[in-house]
């Protein structure tokens, strides 16, 4: 969902440059603007328009008017009264106000006296006004006579308030000046410089704590007035409405936009603003031409009413400027205006800390269709204003996404206790906005406030984008999306033209059909947990949506629901209650039946299962053990049973005591789960040292459960020749037989290597074998090798093998010194096959009891291949013949991939029955089993030989360290959220990812070393540069380079991350076209190092020019990923390259070059020989340079990919959900053109 944050740049656009380019403001005029005051702007025009309407006050029944002459006379009287009591320069006068025709006169009078004002809203909370009075040490308060009693009652005694002078103005309006004796006159930080004379004091909204006081000098606000006057072309004929309260600084802008140009100002009582229809009538009646308002205020009128009365084809509204909230999209604006309406629309952006507006964007209502639903740009900076975008490290950026900062050298406000002068940086004083923007070619695009960027089930969600998508529905008038502290998404919606019977609640409308609409436009992690229908939104005093009031409404509604749902006599969840939560979480709205699965029948996924778990636990008010597992793998009836069994705590405790017992083992205490009574009788006899750990008895082999076929057909149509009636056969005899000896080396996903007991080969020697420059494993006939060096590299399809159904399992590659490698892999078709790496032909196929998602492993002797199955069994098959040697039954599906201990020959595997098993496949017995704390074991175990530990992770969020010999639990680490990622062990640590987006590095003693956070869940298992899974036969030599101390993994945020294994710092990240579920594979390749010299590498140029450095060029060719098409043609047998052309991107000196030449005579450090291959769920296969993260080459498979790739020599083997296993060769340009078999 999100761009790459790692890019850095800057965007600084001082608007003074903009005006100089236009020739509208020269240096002398700019000096006049900077030195001007608010009341000075009014003085310049008041005499010219003495008899014009200055202020119109309309309360819906009566209209009162003050001319410019009357307004100025009243202001003069007010200024004289203040001066007479010694109030002047440096004083801040509190204005306890109510809207009236004389309000502008009060403000002007205070300013003319040389003082500044601080508006105090009588409707504001008492403690808020008390804080403002105290923090500013207010000595004088100006109070309308109508509010004097109210003020004295609330604040008089606490501040020893003493009424002094009073002043009667026109229209029967009088004011009282009150002195607060408890406060002393504050030190004036501006008195020494008239240029920095204070104009007013505002406060921020205080949504993140106590509000900040903002002291605004004239030189900060005057440039706003003059610039917007020019942009909006304000003239004396305009009528400007003040939409916000005086405590919200846009009201100051609106007021002085009118009064500085001789235009008319319209004020209304604040109570009218809460009456949309009455306010709309006043706007139309007074012929308002300039309207500056929050989107919430406009939306309260209703789209139809706005279109029919305010933004008609003959509308007098010249300018409608949105500000204070996220601007509506063009599509939303066009819905609220008549087709031939000529109103100009603007987006104003700013913060109170740099009062008031910082940028302005004129909105093109005739923009391209694809831009209609995009966020509106912030626009160009206003006069004397600087916008700057910074990344998370505080560096200014010009690309990507970051936080916008606003500032200036002259437009500087003081916050809280700041004093003048403030130290200025090169660009002035920059203030943080907490708002995120995206830098585009057209300008800055608003992404959302910090609080609008939330995480939901580990995925980052932009609430602004969710809101925009929902409001694009024709049935929605307006909406607001909020997140609770429990990460619940709440949708508050005003339906469009809802017709209802009297006394009918909107919340009882057709919510189910509305949810179906939402499921059609939102991904599962963005769907709201609750929907509340409202007639109108509650608003704050500033005219914004009152989020606190919405949350209170939600709490009240949920309280009512709990009263209905919770039976008065028993707090047990009923079937109907669960059905409601089930349907809310699942994509399907059909009524769940007892035998329905959340995944299979209701169309749910893992994210929605997490949501359902949270909803059920919230309903019951307590966590429910094993609930997520039950939802994922069992039926509706089982889920309800799980919930009810948890509620009876006493019974549950008794059951636990009767079923479990503590077992003593040397140096450790292990808690295991006893087997069922029916299984006790048939428990296999175990070695004496393990007799205390009772395990499941391995089942006798039932040949009827296993079908084995010998196959002699080509890979492309192997599935058509299967004879499912066969149960035994001779293996296929060909030029390429499966390994019959035991000196094997195994390559598994995540770059895991293992050698069988009889194979003795050094690590470096085996790496050399893996990276053999010959074609080796792919049959090509007798075609001579072309020794010429190619200039490009691609992935070419060499063969494809049809398994019959989706392939989610990862391949196991076994190579032998005297025969070609063999691939072992299973699929959803229940088939498990041995496939020749050379030809793609099946050597044998065994049909198991259910689908296979587990990846296989090879036994320590090299004669058996072991794989888990959905039918709860672990199968042990003869590697040569495919016959079943033994099968072991657990109490749950086995998705975990087994791992073999080459020192003891034990096989470790996890199951969805929450157990980790240690199996002796030769004795056909279970050595020990360990209950893993209540969570299914989805991920694969990993062995750390130096500490004699096997690690396993669970869906309960536990990483458990187990003594691999005894099964004793050493320690556990709890990350609280499910872990699907398989842990990987290095010399000093173990690493794994979690669905909450966190990636952990834990020491072998159980301490967290570091943690890295991605923007979405991590299902991908981490990959370390070659993990040797044999204690004595593959001893890796230490590689101290950064490349060899990194870890690579993928995330559902579409990124592949490379981190330092020592520190957890980000080395690089690469954005894929889709989520990354599979595990990366790190490998070394001489072939990729033999690509021709670069055109843009200084080092290569130096080699080409015999040591004389050539001039570096400004562009470098990258090969990028293209979003896959949904209609891909069938791939030819010998072609896998689907991205023929590479666009040119600007050269970035921090990256390494893409291509390199590396032979026995010429080397340089442009790029190493280490690479990583990664796949996205949409089928993209990408090879990246491990040192830089650059794309080397890529191709597109026709289906989704959940199988992790394996690389051997120059070939990639991977499964795909189009039913095929693919072999792709890494080929240079010269190899692409030669004939294939």
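Q: What amino acid sequence fits the structure above?
A:
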């Amino acid at each position: 969902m999100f761009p790459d944050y790692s890019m850095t740049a800057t965007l600084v656009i001082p608007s003074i440059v903009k005006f100089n380019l236009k020739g509208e403001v020269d240096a002398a005029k700019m000096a006049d603007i900077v030195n001007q005051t608010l009341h000075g702007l009014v003085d310049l025009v008041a005499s010219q328009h003495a008899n014009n309407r200055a202020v119109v006050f309309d309360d819906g029944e009566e209209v009162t008017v003050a001319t410019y002459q009357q307004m100025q006379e009243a202001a003069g009287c007010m200024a004289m009264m203040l001066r007479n009591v010694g109030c002047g320069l440096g004083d801040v006068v509190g204005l306890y106000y109510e809207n009236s025709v004389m309000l502008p006169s009060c403000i002007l009078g205070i300013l003319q006296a040389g003082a500044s004002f601080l508006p105090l809203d009588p409707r504001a909370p008492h403690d808020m006004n008390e804080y403002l009075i105290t923090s500013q040490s207010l000595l004088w308060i100006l109070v309308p006579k109508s509010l004097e009693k109210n003020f004295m009652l609330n604040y008089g005694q606490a501040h020893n308030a003493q009424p002094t002078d009073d002043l009667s103005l026109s229209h029967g309006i009088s004011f009282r000046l009150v002195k607060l004796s408890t406060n002393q006159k504050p030190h004036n930080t501006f008195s020494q410089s008239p240029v920095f004379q204070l104009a007013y004091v505002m406060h921020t909204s205080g949504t993140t704590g106590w509000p900040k006081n903002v002291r605004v000098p004239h030189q900060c606000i005057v440039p706003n007035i003059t610039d917007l006057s020019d942009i909006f072309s304000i003239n004396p004929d305009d009528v400007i409405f003040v939409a916000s309260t005086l405590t919200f600084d846009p009201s100051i802008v609106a007021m002085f936009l009118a009064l500085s140009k001789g235009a008319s100002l319209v004020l209304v009582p604040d109570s009218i603003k809460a009456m949309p229809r009455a306010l709309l009538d006043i706007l139309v009646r007074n012929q308002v031409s300039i309207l500056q308002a929050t989107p919430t205020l406009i939306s309260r009128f209703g789209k139809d009413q706005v279109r029919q009365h305010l933004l008609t084809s003959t509308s007098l509204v010249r300018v409608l400027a949105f500000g204070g909230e996220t601007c509506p999209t063009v599509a939303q604006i066009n819905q609220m205006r008549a087709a031939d309406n000529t109103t100009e629309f603007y987006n104003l952006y700013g913060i109170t800390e740099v009062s008031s507006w910082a940028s302005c964007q004129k909105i093109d209502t005739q923009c391209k269709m694809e831009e209609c639903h995009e966020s509106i740009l912030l626009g160009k900076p206003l006069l004397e204003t600087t916008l700057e975008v910074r990344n998370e490290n505080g560096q200014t950026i010009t690309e990507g996404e970051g936080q916008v900062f606003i500032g200036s050298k002259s437009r500087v406000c003081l916050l809280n206790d700041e004093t003048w002068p403030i130290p200025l940086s090169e660009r002035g004083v920059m203030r943080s906005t907490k708002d995120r923007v995206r830098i585009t070619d057209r300008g800055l695009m608003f992404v959302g406030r910090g609080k609008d960027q939330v995480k939901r089930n580990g995925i980052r969600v932009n609430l602004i984008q969710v809101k925009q998508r929902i409001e694009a529905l024709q049935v929605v008038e307006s909406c607001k999306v909020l997140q609770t502290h429990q990460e619940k998404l709440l949708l508050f919606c005003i339906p469009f033209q809802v017709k209802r019977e009297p006394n009918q609640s909107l919340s009882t409308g057709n919510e189910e059909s509305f949810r179906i609409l939402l499921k059609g436009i939102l991904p599962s992690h963005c769907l709201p947990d609750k929907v509340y229908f409202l007639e109108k939104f509650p608003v704050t005093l500033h005219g914004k949506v009152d989020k606190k009031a919405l949350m209170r409404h939600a709490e009240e509604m949920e309280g009512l629901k709990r009263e209905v749902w919770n039976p008065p006599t028993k707090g047990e969840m009923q079937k109907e209650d669960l059905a409601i939560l089930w349907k809310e979480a699942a994509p399907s709205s059909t009524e769940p039946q007892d035998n329905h699965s959340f995944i299979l029948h209701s169309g749910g996924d893992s994210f929605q299962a997490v949501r359902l778990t949270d909803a059920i636990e919230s309903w019951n008010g307590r966590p429910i053990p094993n609930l997520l597992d039950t939802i994922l793998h069992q039926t509706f009836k089982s889920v309800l049973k799980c919930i009810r069994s948890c509620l009876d705590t006493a019974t549950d405790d008794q059951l636990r005591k009767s079923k479990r017992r503590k077992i003593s083992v040397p140096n450790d205490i292990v808690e295991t789960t006893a087997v069922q009574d029916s299984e006790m009788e048939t428990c296999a006899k175990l070695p004496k040292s393990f007799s205390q750990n009772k395990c499941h008895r391995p089942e006798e082999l039932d040949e009827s459960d296993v079908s084995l076929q010998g196959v002699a057909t080509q890979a492309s149509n192997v599935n058509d020749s299967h004879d499912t009636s066969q149960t035994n056969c001779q293996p296929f005899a060909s030029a390429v037989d499966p390994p019959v000896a035991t000196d094997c080396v195994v390559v598994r996903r995540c770059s895991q290597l293992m050698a069988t007991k009889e194979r003795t080969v050094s690590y470096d020697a085996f790496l050399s074998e893996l990276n053999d420059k010959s074609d080796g494993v792919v049959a090509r006939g007798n075609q001579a090798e072309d020794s010429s060096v190619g200039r490009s590299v691609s992935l070419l399809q060499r063969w494809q093998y049809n398994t019959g159904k989706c392939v989610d399992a990862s391949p196991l590659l076994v190579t032998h010194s005297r025969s070609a490698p063999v691939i072992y892999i299973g699929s959803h078709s229940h088939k498990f096959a041995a496939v020749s790496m050379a030809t793609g032909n099946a050597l044998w196929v065994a049909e198991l009891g259910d689908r296979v998602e587990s990846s296989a492993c090879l036994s320590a002797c090299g004669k058996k291949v072991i794989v888990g199955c959905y039918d709860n069994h672990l199968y042990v098959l003869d590697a040569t013949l495919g016959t079943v040697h033994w099968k072991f039954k657990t109490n749950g599906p086995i998705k975990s991939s087994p791992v073999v201990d080459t020192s003891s020959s034990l096989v470790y595997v996890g199951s969805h029955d929450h157990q980790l098993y240690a199996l002796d496949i030769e004795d056909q017995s279970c050595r020990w089993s360990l209950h893993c704390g209540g969570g299914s074991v989805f991920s694969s175990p990993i062995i750390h030989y130096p500490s004699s530990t096997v690690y396993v992770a669970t869906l309960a969020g536990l990483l458990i360290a187990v003594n691999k010999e005894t099964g004793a639990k050493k320690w556990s680490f709890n990350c609280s959220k499910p872990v699907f990622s398989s842990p990987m062990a290095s010399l000093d640590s173990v690493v794994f990812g979690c669905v909450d987006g966190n990636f952990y590095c834990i020491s072998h003693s159980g301490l967290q070393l570091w943690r890295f956070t991605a923007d979405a869940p991590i299902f991908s298992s981490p990959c370390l540069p070659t993990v040797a899974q044999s204690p004595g036969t593959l001893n890796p030599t230490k590689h101290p380079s950064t490349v060899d101390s990194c870890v690579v993994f993928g995330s559902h945020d579409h990124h592949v991350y490379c981190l330092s294994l020592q520190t957890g710092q980000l080395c690089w990240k690469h954005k894929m076209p889709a989520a990354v579920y599979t595990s990366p594979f790190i490998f070394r390749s001489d072939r990729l190092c033999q690509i021709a010299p670069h055109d843009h590498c200084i080092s290569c140029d130096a080699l080409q020019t015999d040591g004389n450095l050539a001039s570096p060029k400004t562009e470098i060719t990258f090969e990028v990923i293209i979003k896959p098409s949904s209609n891909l043609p069938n791939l030819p047998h010998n072609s896998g390259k689907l991205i023929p052309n590479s666009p040119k991107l600007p050269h970035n000196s921090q990256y390494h070059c893409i291509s390199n030449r590396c032979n026995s005579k010429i080397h340089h450090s442009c790029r190493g020989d280490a690479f990583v291959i990664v796949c996205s769920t949409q089928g993209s296969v990408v090879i990246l340079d491990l040192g830089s993260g650059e794309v080397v080459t890529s191709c597109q498979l026709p289906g989704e990919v959940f199988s992790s790739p394996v690389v051997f020599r120059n070939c990639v083997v991977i499964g795909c959900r189009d039913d095929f296993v693919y072999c792709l060769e890494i080929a240079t340009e010269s190899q692409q053109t030669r004939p294939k078999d």
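Q: And what stands out in the fold?
A: The first strand starts at residue 53 and ends at 58.
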